[in-house]
Structure formats: structure tokens, C-alpha cells
Automatic annotation (TrEMBL):
Keywords: Coiled coil. This is Cell division protein ZapB. It comes from Methylobacillus rhizosphaerae. The keyword Coiled coil applies. The keyword Coiled coil applies. Residues 22-77 form a coiled coil.
């Protein structure tokens, strides 16, 4: 990709070693871009999982609060000295 661009721009006087370096750089950039895309997708999945976990946690807290109030109401209805 980079090599083709340099050729189109008439940079034909670069050396074979420079050409090899450019090819290596292009390969490394391709790997970096692929890794970036993979990590970005993974990050999105993790963010979505975090939101689901936070929603689940909120629901569990609400359920526990409701259960606490029900238990307190039951305790209040018990006859005196039953506890």
C-alpha cells in the first residue's frame, strides 16, 4: 500500500533496503490496525456486559430491599414475645 503510493508519487530512487523497510512498516501497520479493531470490538462487548451487570445488580438490590420490607412487616405482625 505505502510502497504503491510512493511509486505513484515518482519516488523511484529509494533503495531496496528502504523498500524492505517500507514493506515491513506496512505489515506492522496492518497488524496494528487489525489489533485496534479487535480491541475496539472487545471493548464494546465489555461495556455492554458491564451495563447488563449493573442492571442486574440494581434489580437484585431492589429485590433485597423489597424482601427486607416484607420481613419487617411480618415481624411487626408477630405476637408480642414470639421472637
Amino acid at each position: 500500500m505505502l510502497h504503491a503510493w510512493l511509486t505513484m508519487c515518482r519516488f523511484c530512487n529509494y533503495s531496496g533496503a528502504m523498500n524492505a523497510d517500507l514493506i515491513t512498516l506496512e505489515e506492522k501497520l496492518s497488524q496494528l490496525i487489525a489489533l485496534y479493531q479487535l480491541l475496539r470490538a472487545e471493548n464494546l462487548e465489555l461495556r455492554q456486559a458491564l451495563v447488563r451487570s449493573q442492571d442486574d445488580n440494581q434489580q437484585l438490590q431492589e429485590n433485597m430491599e423489597l424482601a427486607k420490607h416484607k420481613l419487617l412487616a411480618l415481624i411487626d405482625r408477630l405476637p408480642e414475645g414470639a421472637i
